[in-house]
Amino acid sequence: MGKYRFEEEEHELFRKSLKKFLEKEAVPQYDQWEKDHIIPKSFWKRMGEMGFLCPQVEEQYGGLGLDFRYAVIIGEEMERVGTSLTGVGLHNDITVPYIEAYGTDEQKQRWLPGCVTGEYITAIAMTEPGAGSDLANISTTAVRDGDNYIVNGQKTFITNGINSTHVVVVVKTDPKAEPKHRGISLLMIEEGIPGFTKGRKLDKVGLHAQDTSELYFEDCVVPAANLIGDENKGFTYLMEKLQQERLVVAIAAQTASEDMLETTLDYVKSRKAFGKPIGSFQNSQFKLVEMATEIELGHSFLESLIEDHMAGKDIVSKVSMAKYWLTDTAKKIAGECMQLHGGYGYMEEYKIARRYRDTPVAAIYAGSNEIMKTIIAKRMGL
Ligand SMILES: Cc1cc2nc3c(=O)[nH]c(=O)nc-3n(C[C@H](O)[C@H](O)[C@H](O)COP(=O)(O)OP(=O)(O)OC[C@H]3O[C@@H](n4cnc5c(N)ncnc54)[C@H](O)[C@@H]3O)c2cc1C
């Protein structure tokens, strides 16, 4: 796929150096990470050393002050290596922005430099066993007690759960609030605080190297100084920042689709049946043409969406459309590309098999695709 029209020479150079870094430090190790079910912290540190962690952070807090175009490049190149690297995007573009946007100067000084070097790895804990899509219905509580909050509850499906040193935890600070979302706050809970334990690393269908886990809080004493933003405004902060989360997921899905098409094009040109390349059959051609068309449409849609996001426009409806459509498209492309590989597509040594396992989750997380449609419908006045 061609580059986006907003990419300039410095972006190309950045992409080149990131690609080179990943080819040496991620691609050869990736299969082992998938077997280990975790990406080592040493990789995070190397990413930090190279300036690939949170490059948007202001220079005074250790970052490079770069714009969202660099996040797009990092998202794409990480996804090309494999979807399990999604935890880096979550750290860079989803969790750390809460500190940047709503943290005090003291909090920024305390946390941001470590997030940039990779000494700190962040996670965001919204989902609970009893509340996923219905986020306002969470039951983890944070009760104010002098200079602290006492936190009790459980979170699940948390990306970077095991590796994380700092977790933005969505808590109920006013369980009686009506409507319920008005009683929600964001608390930074650091590894090592008594009462905070990590549960098991969850055994997933895909994203094997991604350390998704449960988190437990039992009479966990968290300094009130760790409250991010104002008390009971957490839901508003989430609604603001979830837009970029959905955009990042949409960009990854688009990249996955492009990668699957490229892989499959190579395959159908070399594999033969009935004395002819698989790619010479009309059915194969039509399938591949349909995929290429959807990928072109996705690229144009994303291009204007990224520009709107960078211009600070309201992207709620369009980003919800992009998130649902691009992730559904990637899921469909995964199935069709596997089919075009025949039996080999079902073998683990072929990349398409891993993509087939990794792709469907994007339709579920970051707000399920059904929830995306409810947002769009509401904005259509329905
Ligand atoms: C690999 C992975 C990583 C994740 N990472 C994180 C993370 O880092 N942090 C975090 O907080 N969470 C994370 N999640 C959780 C994820 O965001 C939730 O799984 C998701 O929001 C759906 O919630 P749920 O699983 O409780 O499903 P439910 O809310 O129980 O939904 C079940 C089904 O019902 C549908 N549904 C629900 N409500 C409606 C409605 N109103 N209208 C129509 N259909 C509806 C859903 O779309 C879905 O199909 C992760 C999940 C996975 C699988």
TrEMBL record:
UniProt keyword Metal-binding present: no
Coiled-coil annotated spans: none
Pfam families: Acyl-CoA_dh_1 (PF00441), Acyl-CoA_dh_M (PF02770), Acyl-CoA_dh_N (PF02771)
Named cofactor requirement(s): FAD
Entry keywords, A to Z: FAD, Flavoprotein, Oxidoreductase
Limits of the Acyl-CoA dehydrogenase/oxidase C-terminal domain: 232-380
InterPro entries with a match to the protein in the record: Acyl-CoA_DH_CS, Acyl-CoA_Oxase/DH_mid-dom, Acyl-CoA_Oxase/DH_mid-dom_sf, AcylCo_DH-like_C, AcylCo_DH/oxidase_C, AcylCoA_DH/ox_N, AcylCoA_DH/ox_N_sf, AcylCoA_DH/oxidase_NM_dom_sf
Keyword DNA-binding (UniProt): no
Every Acyl-CoA oxidase/dehydrogenase middle domain range: 123-220
Acyl-CoA dehydrogenase/oxidase N-terminal domain mapped to chain residues: 9-119
Family: Belongs to the acyl-CoA dehydrogenase family.
Protein's UniProt name: Acyl-CoA dehydrogenase family protein
